[in-house]
Amino acid sequence: MPTLLGTSVRADFPFFQSHPDAVYLDTGATSQRPSAVIDAEADFVRTSYAAVHRGSSLATGEATWAFENARERVAEFVGAGEREIVWAQNATDALNMIALGMADASAGLGGDRFALREGDEIVVTEAEHHANLIPWQRLAAKTGARLRCTPVDERGLWSLDGLRAVVGDRTRVIAFAHVSNVTGQIAPVADVVEIARGVGALTVLDACQSAPHMPVDLAGLGVDFAAFSAHKMLGPNGIGALFGRAELLDELPPARTGGSMITTVTMERAEFLPAPQRFEAGTQAVSQTVGFAAATAYLGALGMDRVAAHEHEIGAALVEAVEATPGVRLIGPAAGEYRAGLASFIVDGVHAHDVGQFLDDRGITVRTGHHCAQPLHRALGTTSSTRASAGVYSSLDDVAALRAALGEVRGFFGADR
After folding, report:
1. Has residue 244 got a pLDDT over 80?
2. Which residues pair with 124 in a beta bridge?
3. pLDDT at 16 over 70
4. Fewer CB within 10 Å of terminal CB in the chain, N or C?
């Protein structure tokens, strides 16, 4: 069966014009950008750049329109209302905004519904990226709340039964990834939301590995908060988004304070604007938002159903290639099981960094290390793994190149003796 995208869109990406033979299987870390995204940001800087939400000049008005229009387009892409998207530096920053806001609420700085007390509980999974773990560790330490963990099995997968076992009447937050950046496990979001609502807990979704690769309707999923980054979805660095239900964002204390997010300031106190502006203190990454919107437009033009189908095909081929190679162990769901378009693996007798260097020497870019998920790797009994991840420009030829090279790794390092 031919791929739906792959080589047919590579001409849209300058990287592949400069590296025509590149096998880029590291989209899970950061994606390449199409010319449409690069040009949109550059054109804005050349012709419309100015301060936003400051002053009353024509230039300011044009720049502010572009800034807010970008918000509207990104919101539409993920099924959110315009007031439900807050600009952040990246998804990590967005997740920290929630945790820091809850810390301020717990300190009595407003937003009583977000206040945690000693004995309250925050639930995460053992598979979380550090960005969706460490902020909650810190919040628990600041408030006296207890951080509880849903364990993973020998394949790195967590289950709803495991989640139910750690959720209780004191659970206030359940934070989890829509798609694991290591295993490719796709979370049953609706079930998690139902569990959370049953105990009155907030849900926080890490959508970094889902928003670029499948249709995502955050409002429809029913989560309270979510975070995603532009650089993983064909967009610029330095810009991400926090999604929150509007009524929650209006009450959550802002994690950063300063100019442009206030209504009234005296020498004693300050009052803040409604969301989203209440969270956007200081000068924003305006041109990056324009590029972010262009990235969602590009993906939208391809069609997210089509993107998901293409990457499912590539992901299935990656899994098959890994499972067919002697001495290579797949992490996560097996072939034929529901999973995202990536494959992480361990090569017996060869460190992941050596695997990555061997593949790089053959023009194949992958990710090596602990993928910012040390607890997950510890549960798997290893310190690191190698990950190949698909994008819209990935092809079956890329997978064939990986498969051929992967079959040579253990022999090259003498690990097959």
Report:
1. yes
2. 149
3. yes
4. N
CA 389 to chain CA mean position, Å: 14
pLDDT at position 50 over 50: yes
Which is the catalytic residue, given 50, 372, 396, 415? 372
Residue 1 has pLDDT above 70, yes or no: no
Q: In whole angstroms, give the CA distance from residue 399 to residue 364.
A: 10
Pure H helices in 263-327: 286-302, 304-323
Query: What gap in Å lies between CA 119 and CA 182, rounded to an integer?
Result: 31
Residue 299 CA to residue 70 CA, distance in Å, equals 14
Mean pLDDT value of segment 55-59: 84
Q: Which three-class secondary structure state does DSSP give residue 301? A: helix
Tens of pLDDT along 94-150? 999 999 999 999 999 999 999 999 999 999 999 999 999 999 999 999 999 999 999
Token pair in block for residue 296: 């969602």
Residues whose CB falls within 8 Å of the CB of residue 56, separated by 6 or more in sequence, listed in order: none
Angle, helices 35-47/286-302, rounded to nearest 10 degrees: 150
Cβ neighbours for 101, distance < 8 A, ≥ 6 positions apart = 111, 114, 252, 253, 254, 255
Q: Are strands 385-389 and 342-347 parallel, antiparallel or unpaired?
A: antiparallel
One-letter amino acid at 316 equals A
Domains of the chain: 6-25+303-412 (3.90.1150.10), 38-300 (3.40.640.10)
- Tell how far CA 48 is from the center of its chain: 30
Is 372 part of the annotated catalytic residue set?
yes
Cα distance between residue 352 and residue 362, in whole Å:
16
Environment class of residue 160 by beta-carbon count within 10 Å: exposed (0-12), middle (13-18) or buried (19+)?
Answer: middle
CA quadruple 298, 303, 308, 313: dihedral sign: negative
- The pLDDT tens digits for 355-380 are 999 999 999 999 999 999 999 999 99
Q: What is the pTM of this model?
A: 0.96
